[in-house]
Records
---
Amino acid sequence: MRTVDLAATGVRELNRRLRSAADDPSAQSWLVTNPKGAHAIAAGLTRPVRIQIDGHVGYYCAGMNQAAAVTIDGHCGTGVAENIMSGLVRVRGNASQSAGASGHGGLLVIEGNAGPRCGISMKGVDIVVGGKTGHMSGFMAQSGNLVVCGDAGHDLGDSIYEAAIYVGGSPASLGADCVEKDMTRKHRSRLRDLLSRAGIEIDPDRFRRFGSARKLYHFRVDHADAY
Amino acid sequence: MGAVDPGRLRPSHTFPAHVLAEIHRAADQGVYEIRGFGTKRPLPGFDDLVFLGASMSRYPLEGYRERCDTGVTLGTRFASKPLHLKIPITIAGMSFGALGANAKEAIGRACTAMGTSSTTGDGGMTEEERQSSETLVYQLLPSRYGMNPDDLRRADAIEIVVGQGAKPGGGGVLLGQKITERVAGMRGLPEGIDQRSACRHPDWTGPDDLAIKIQELREITGWEKPIYVKIGASRPTYDAALAVKAGADVIVLDGMQGGTAATQDVFIEHVGIPTMPALRQAVEALQALDVHREVQLIVSGGIRSGADVAKALALGADAVSIGSAAMVALGCNKAVHVEDYRALGTEPGYCHHCHTGRCPVGVTTQDPELEARLRPEQGARWLRNYLTAMVLELQTIARANGKSHVLNLEPEDLAALTVEAAAMAGIPLAGTDWIPGRG
């Protein structure tokens, strides 16, 4: 494992090393120390390297991740794993707003709580939150799965498209066009798989499923009050 | 029944025919009008300015022989690979979805031939436009449809879209009839639904966040690509300054005459300010921060001719961007296939039906039969011809004002024809030294 101390090496140099070492078999595992809330740590990775970040990070950690496995042993700022394409990003602590925003694929695990707009505009990513999520989570979520083991904040799944949201606790309220749906065997199986991949042990039978009523897919004046 | 005296048919100024028709339509449908194209109302603009030309105190350059350069470099502030364009006219972001693939390819080919850039749009980058465009600007939009880090890296510049002149503060609309299988696949949406783009980015709000977002994009692309910030013309004094503060290499300022594929008519006609005053305010903001020319300024919204380009450059822009005019060069509103215009309830010259997907000339459509009416080779030829003519016009004006480079055009070369234009552009009213608001 290679170690980079961000107290001595800037983010720009760290990211340069991570990119340039991507094809080096001896540089597949990294430890980053003293992140101290720096932004864009490990952003734009493209190879299946493993990164362990020992501390709290700022905005956009592991942004647009492709293939890499990034573990943040701390809390993280806005937009962790934003637009993630593939790979795994795990936050041991809490995540601020817009976690996994517009993610296209891969898995984001937040073992603590997530702030507002978790999974906003998600496009295929799977997100598992061990605790609670803030308001407007799953806003305009297009596809993928958002699993909230605790409670969800107000306006969950507002203007949701084809994503699925599973909540182990209860949502404070549902957003426009978001409705509760049947929890079928297929969905329970999918949820069990997601929880297993996230390493979170919780009974899938506790969860309820939410998704789109598909009433706002075509603008009709009769639905104007929903906006 | 007596005969109607035409002299007694006095139309209402407050309720002219188009207002009456719109009220009737709204009463029928109970919803706002959605349409494409840009503003139709009269607005103060570059037609209200003239160049003074050479005189005893200014020597002209020989019109057909002396050199007048047109090259511009964009993105010199922080990017290690700025763009070097041969002409100061670029093509604005227009999505695949709003435009058909043939139109996108035609634009790319023409831009490559002319040594300038084209721009992606909402929905991501198509292979056709990457292959046909030597210099391609990749837009990062609030919707993030088709947003892909691989495309980000193979772009030549990145444009963060904060707003658009046709709808500052609003997101786009792509009605279901244009959401074909390919468009839906690129955007990750079900086929055939009305796609309403977000108006705010999902992971940042405000200039402090934007600075961090720009840092992330630079990290992902190795600090190579120029990063543009596109703003709709609403409060350009503040927006330009905040874009500078956030770390933009280039600011793209889109005035209210700018076009759109589809949005509410009320947005197009009533939100934002015209291009000309917005340009002056943005230039003043850059000058106040001592970054004019260091942070380049691209202006768009109603640019139609070499004269418009020259006026924009004289007011302080580094380049312009065209969207609607490029579509017109491709055949938009041309008097062909007239029966298809009529099927849309319109006529050539009046069409703004981009939103329907039934474009009679194959520009803003995904319908294979209609799209086939625009062959990429032919479209590229038309657009190349049009750009060439614009550049010749621009050089003609620059030489007449004694300039060996078009970027040497300056406000002192201009006079305003109306009090409004004088006030908005900060240019003296012709025949006076008076600029309203400045004593």
---
Amino acid sequence: MTGGVRVWALHLAVLVALALAPLVVPPYHATNLARIMVLAVFAMGYNIAFGYTGLLSLGHALLLAAGMYATGLLVAHGGWTAGPALLAGALAGAGVAFVVGLLALRTTGAAFMIVTLMFAQAGYLTILYFGDLTRGDEGFTLAREARTLFGLDLVTDATRYSAALALFAAGLIGCLLLVRSRTGRVLVAVRENSERTRMLGYDPFRARLLALTLSGLYAGTAGAAYALLFGYVGASFATVQYSVLALLWVLLGGAGTVLGPLVGTLVMFYLVDFAGNLTDATLFVVGAALILLILFARTGLLGTLRARALAWLP
Amino acid sequence: MAALTPLLKARGLKRHFGGVKAVDGVGLDLGPTGVHALIGPNGAGKSTLVGLLSGRITADAGIIEFAGRDITRLPAHARVRLGIAYTFQVTSIYPRLSVEDNVTLAVRHPSGDVTTAARAALARVGLDIHARQIAGDLSYGHQRLLELAMGLALTPRLLILDEPTQGLAAGEIAGFSALVRDVARDASVLLIEHNMDVVMDLADRITVLDFGRVLASGTPDAIRKDRAVQAAYLGA
């Protein structure tokens, strides 16, 4: 019981710290934080599939883009309001993940990586193919007046930050509930020993499909929220770069830790930001950071912390 | 015994791998309680047969009935839910989880205290004092017992033990035999075993496989006296 209290206290403290952050940090960083929180929702979704269930996907950009484009196109061309469009984006992410999962989960390991990568590339090319609607690589912006949710103007810094925080908090609490539930333990069991899990009466395919669909729900929601909060929908989010970024954020923060995705996204974001002040070769700095990570903290920042000191960290 | 309807009934089971007739028309009846041993030389088809019964391998032909229900096409995980538990020949646990978490995953109470049930299964194999340890750190013998505890935690009606004493010390085997005898009081145990002392000590019935077929089936005494078995296997 005390273990449970400690876990909830830590995660609520992180949420409170995020809520107080705009009061102390300059607006530039507050906007960054809003962006980081939305992208961290994407990373949390990736973590459910990869960190907890062991599904190494290279196609999560497709799920992010599914949410982003579902919401963006419905608002821009369908005249939908933000609320229903956000819901549609979330469901688009989950729906695409479910369908891709039905096919891709027939494979494992390297084959699964390749199949998910191919699906994502097909998605990216589809966006380019329907250039009349999507405006291809260039993307499109959402009209200011469309970006209002429950009467809140998402364009202003304060409401945008609050909306990003609310979304992140929902994602974080959802993830925490999941991994502490019996279902969450079965996902870990599938990751650790799939055949054993099957012979304990669980269907590993079903568990993986559930994990991937939930992962898609997170990714789709993040994409939809990004479109509404930052007013831009572009094909770059559907490129393999974003699939790899999700993987890197999770690896950096600690795969299979609830807070890892936030930590990884935050650290990587500011690493790139910091490197940008020194050199144009920001990816060089990112690469160096990752090599250091592999050499000295293979389980990521929080994974290492958990192994060294905080065994109770979920 | 013969008057009882069998818990598991297999007829005409076949499974060929290429040209190899691993299981070639096997029939088997298992009662609701007692130990039924499956013996035979290496490559006789024992592991393939229990693979077919547990659902890890699909049959080319034949039918399997469990508690009066045709389960031939049922996937392995669904058979586990019906009460067929399988313990692996090569120890298969979750080495990075705690001993208790390993067993907890096997407990399937819709309601009730999962932890209590897990502890009870651990106590039965004598591993309760190691509950908090990481499973991968246990000795080999203890990992075998953990595997058995996971099987018990499933509260099976049929427990399939695939060479459970392999690698156990003599002292551990005695404890293990006592445990199996206890389990067999209210569940059916199908035991694949190479150690003849264990087989003759535990088994109520024995089926001998050779080249994928049933060579003989009967009580331990009958099997001991069977000439075909002696010639093929026991080395008369």
---
Amino acid sequence: MAEPLVVLDGLTKSFGTEIVTEVLHGIDLEVLPAEFTALVGPSGSGKSTLLNLLGLLDRPTSGRIVLAGRDTTPLTDDERSAVRGRTLGFVFQFHHLLPEFTALENVMMPMLAARGREEKGMRERALSLLEEIGLADRASYRATKLSGGQQQRVAVARALVLEPPLVLADEPTGNLDTESGAQVFELLRRVSALHRTAFLVVTHDERIAARCDRVLTMVDGRIRSDVRNGRP
Amino acid sequence: MPFEVLVALRFLREGRIQTLLILSGIGVGVGVIVFLSALIGGLQDSLIERTLGTQAHVVVRAPEDVVRPVSESSPGLAVAPRLERPAQRLRSIVGWAQTLDLVRSLPGVRAAAPTVAGAAFALRGLANRSVALRGVEPASFRNIIDMAPRLTAGEFRVDATNAVLGVELASDLGVSVGDKFRLETPAGRSDVFLVAGIFDVGNKDLNERWVFVSLRSAQTLLDLSGGISTIELKVEKIFDAERAAGEIAARTGLQADSWMKLNRQLLVGLRSQSASSWMIQFFVVVAVALGIASVLVVSVVQKSREIGILKAMGTRTIQVVRIFLVQGAVLGLAGSILGSGIGAALSYFFASLATNPDGSPTFPVNLSPVLFLGAAAVATLTGLLAAVAPAERAASLDPADVIRYG
């Protein structure tokens, strides 16, 4: 069995200072490389909180998060930013592209932020990813000139541009019509297989969950079930 | 292009109306600063030029006579001396040739000229005028006060028995170039001179009183044979005159007075003018800084989603800070370029409004490249400083909040 990509160890998260509400009660979880996992559960079950912790956007109240063999708990904010840039890609529900930039520039942005300026090959790399998602002809369009589905596909390309081993997706199809949603999901599966990237996809959509390798169900801040769909 | 600059410029470009408004605001502010500096600078230059055009920067003369008590107090005898100030007589500077060499060798001294100055009467027919006699060497005196461009008739020739006098005196005496008149000193010495030139220095009093003759003629008339009464000099930087005067006094024991001491009122006037101009400029800078800061604070709120996305993509906190600092600096720099144009236009417009009858501007505006560079530097720095608080605010945004709530 391969070395796990993500190890969560007794993770809890509470909000509030006077009235403390614990939304995660001790999560233990391992995610393997290239694994395509769905995270389902009713609203308020703690899915998004878990995703934010895993994405190093927020800190756990207690417990450890080990990403690619590195314990992230003691890191400073800037170190966490660096780990985030190297290890993680994000696809959000509201496709969060930067409206000031073109599709191509949006895909390049993580590389620019990481290296500090444009370097040779960045543009080509971003273009080849746009080709992969079938939007090479929209490269010079402003983000705001693309349809919702197109924007979400650009967001997928952006998440993959630094070749992170793990992409976190928060309802990536939740804001799209059925057809666009299906297209984006197909794209996610395809790039996951192609780049050997692990995905953790939060979704409400049972049909999407059913087509993932593994389904985690959360209820009331705990993982209720963990099912692997027909794979060893 | 660095990542931070790329993002900063794009944010500003997308700000459109907001960016345009603040740029105009900065432009007007910098324009006022440039215009005011040019105006006050030009005004002061012209005032100093007018004042110093007919004055040496430093005048060196023999120390005044003083009286020392000779009686000594002895036991049992109380002496209450009353020291009477002696009348000052015209005296030569002892060893003036060496003093002149010394003065000329001092750093910062541009030129020095020996002169003889004293009182005399100009006489012709029934006309009798009290005048200030000035014996000069044309070659050295030209570097102190250049009379040639101020002549209205004849030439500045003061050799032998040639003399040059002012327009008012010439009309009082009824002489023109080539005519003769007599100069007589209170001591009774007199000589006849030929009018070689007539000048107009733009000051009625000087036009009535100055009579230039050769050094030798003045020495003879004033009974200073071989001696000189004053050394007049020009310094490289006019505001160093006081320092130069102090040094000369200390090294020669002579009395040295700078134009700054002789024109105390003018100097006080110039300084308070500068102070009020600085004050206005300071408050304009503060207003510009507040404008930039408020626009950037609003921009941080508007762009909080984008900042969250950038952070989620691995942008470090310091990069976010730089994005906003660059915006402040760019606004300041671009605004100052705009403002330099506005200031220059205002200056020329104003200069064209206030003109002399002959069409020349009443006071030339002083638009130097240093002024524009200075304005650009101040505006850029102001923009940078004004952006610090908004930048810190942007840096402290929590990306999780932004992403959670879209």
---
Amino acid sequence: MDALLDAVMTAFSLILTMDADLVEIAGLSLNVSLTALLIASLIGLPLGSLLAMARFPGRRVLIIVLNALMGMPPVVIGLLVYILLSRSGPFGVFGLLFSPTAMIIAQVLLVVPIIASLSRQVMEELWREYHEQFRSLGVGPWRTVRALIWDGRFSLLTAELAGFGRAIAEVGAVMIVGGNIDHVTRVMTTAIALEVSKGDLALALGLGLVLILLSLATSLAGYLVKEFGERRYGA
Amino acid sequence: MFCRALTILGGLFLALNAQIAIAAEFITVASTTSTQNSGLFDHILPAFTEKTGIEVRVVAVGTGAAIKLAKNGDADVLFVHHKPSEEQFVAEGYGVERFDVMYNDFIIVGPKADPAGIKGMTDVTAALAQVADQGAAFASRGDDSGTHKKELGLWKEAGVDPTASSGNWYNETGSGMGATLNVAAAKDAYALSDRGTWLSFKNRGTLGIQVAGDTRLFNQYGVILVNPDRHGHVKVAESQAFIDWLRSDEGQALIDGFTINGEKLFNANAQ
């Protein structure tokens, strides 16, 4: 119980004093994960739409593979990206290992399957509902995708939140490809892992509470957008 | 509206990323969890960076993993603590030359109850043999780190094969020093630790130092420049400056001056 109390106190004092290290670490966490989410959405949403609307050989296999990849352990993705970006690997010449860019790459790989799989489900339902209309109106495929994404935007928000949750919460991949370097690649989760290994459980849990608050704030923002949006534009 | 929001967000991230990517002069040092967890780097690195403008990026993993990183060319400097592996690293042509930097010692920590009755013993292998005899819980790193290699060497000298009892009284955590101490504290187990990590470790439970002072518990740290002949991108000048500084009077004095609660963690001994 004491440890829990300590952790809560630590979390509050970190937040109230706007601890410089905490702000930097939390900022990098948000920056890396939101950038990864943005890129993953640019890949995942079109991919999900394609899977929902088009029929091509290998489509079912791709859907199953994407669903399976949603459960891919981050540490495996981390290892894969390490091998690719290592100086001894195929992309070693770019010197990207142990940089925020490497962390973004790893998180994009983690998030794309979630965005693609969940958006496929949303889009499939919309497509089933509207495709006769679109076809009879002679709307082109690109405009159809745009219209469907726009129509399903509030449901797609859930996919985005799930993707963001996966990115901000994972430690296995960013630890390997980022290296948890102070002031360079240290994010919330790797900082927590470090404090645990120092035996400073109160600080670790305090940081954990801050991370939970960050997630809550993001989720609340998503919820508000959805609520107000639906009220204004209709569900 | 949606598209505009995306554009704004995108711009924001680009701006933020640009801020992160300010091209600073930096070197990457592959080092061990013991040096990072103890807080040594936080203590000494700012002085070096201020003097030379070179930022030192430390990736802290076990000695075995650090050596692999350096072999792959993913670090400019290797700063670890297992002399035989370090000498092999140089002999195989991965490193230029190995230099002593500092030392401290290993200790055996254990629960207050001391089920194996080893408290105060000065013969470390006899103590380990007694732990094995009693089947008292022991937490091992099990991660190919310098401390793990040291521990395996001591077991061998003690004439015990602990891995035969793995999962029984011998627990291989496969993780860092701090994580292993967390396990030892929770399971009331013995563990071999470097003194630096122990001194800065907070979650001790009833753990305390049981065995120390045996000359075989000596723990030497060495630094090696990764061979630029093998990895052309190694930042030789900056890395050499760092190695020279570590071995200089200024660097050595800073290492000697690092204490926690009045206890010195590392003794500088560069030649």
